[in-house]
Specification:
This protein has 295 residues and is mainly beta. The chain is built from no helices and 24 strands.
Length: 295
């Protein structure tokens, strides 16, 4: 017993004791007692995460089995009923709960997919194992579980068009994905930066305009090919004048009536960028006579 604000006491033997604090005011009125459990001579258990190994990398949808153990100087080997597992998902600078506290020497859960495409590059799992001894003293350790990743590249032909992944623009033409993760690729008809329209033709893997791939174990590339729109019915010739160089201009109708420039100059000041400049007198585009031009 002590009447000072701070005190020390050495217990003569190991055991569980109760320390009690009562405060009296200057009139001698005592407070309700406050107690604190003291486990003298008791040390916390030492937990161990036995598997997976530090080199393990998980695939999306994979069943991951966690095994662990713990020893205690007073109890010896702790039973599985005194082990508790928790899994936290880390993304950039914040976290999300993923696997709730679960008791056992061996527990299993299913590996998640990343929150989104951008999150795949900076996300991982943290496994926490807590061991509690017979007197209630506990210790927690943790380990990181990293995903098995692979780079995915999306390209277009012609270059510069915009496919999507999971209905969004990818963070870059080459981005990180997690092995086993399903990605929805899509290539809509679109207009390029020069105002020229393009129509989807095919994917390099043979998939439909919108289709799902499963991220493989190795880096992979997928190219969406686009073509110029089909010429309207009855069109015999069409010229965009968008080559920008050379002495000829292509027939966009697909009928092969190529034009040859005569005293005309290329310019970048057209309505949608490239164009031909005519001098108003001698400039022309000469197209050879062809039966396909007959109306």
């Amino acid at each position: 017993q002590s009447s000072t604000p701070t005190t020390t006491h050495r217990y003569p033997a190991s055991g569980t004791f109760t320390a009690t604090l009562v405060v009296r005011d200057n009139h001698g009125l005592a407070s309700q007692p406050v107690t604190k459990r003291i486990d003298a001579g008791n040390t916390p258990p030492e937990p161990s995460i036995d598997s997976p190994a530090p080199s393990f990398r998980f695939r999306v949808g994979q069943t991951i089995t966690l095994t662990g153990s713990a020893t205690d100087a007073e109890d010896g080997a702790e039973p599985g009923s005194r082990l508790s597992w928790t899994v936290i998902r880390h993304h950039a600078t914040h976290t999300h709960p993923y696997f709730p506290p679960t008791t056992g020497a061996s527990v299993a859960f299913t590996a998640p997919e990343p929150e989104d495409v951008a999150a795949a590059a900076n996300s991982y799992l943290e496994v926490q194992l807590t061991a509690t001894d017979s007197r209630g003293l506990s210790k927690t350790i943790s380990a990181h579980l990293l995903p098995a990743s692979a780079n995915v590249t999306l390209a277009t032909s012609p270059a510069g068009l915009a496919p999507t992944v999971n209905d969004l623009a990818p963070p870059a033409s080459t981005f990180v994905s997690w092995q086993g993760w399903n990605l929805k690729l899509s290539a809509a008809d679109q207009t390029d930066g020069n105002g020229k329209p393009w129509v989807f033709s095919s994917w390099s893997d043979g998939g439909a305009r919108t289709h799902t791939i499963t991220t493989p174990a190795t880096d992979s590339s997928y190219t969406a090919t686009f073509t110029s729109p089909a010429a309207p019915a009855g069109l015999v010739a069409a010229y965009a004048f968008d080559e920008g160089s050379g002495t000829t201009t292509a027939d966009a109708s697909g009928r092969g009536n190529t034009g040859t420039l005569s005293n005309a100059a290329w310019t970048s000041a057209g309505h949608t960028a490239k164009a031909l400049s005519f001098n108003g007198s001698s400039s022309a585009v000469v197209v050879p006579d062809s039966s396909s031009l007959d109306l």
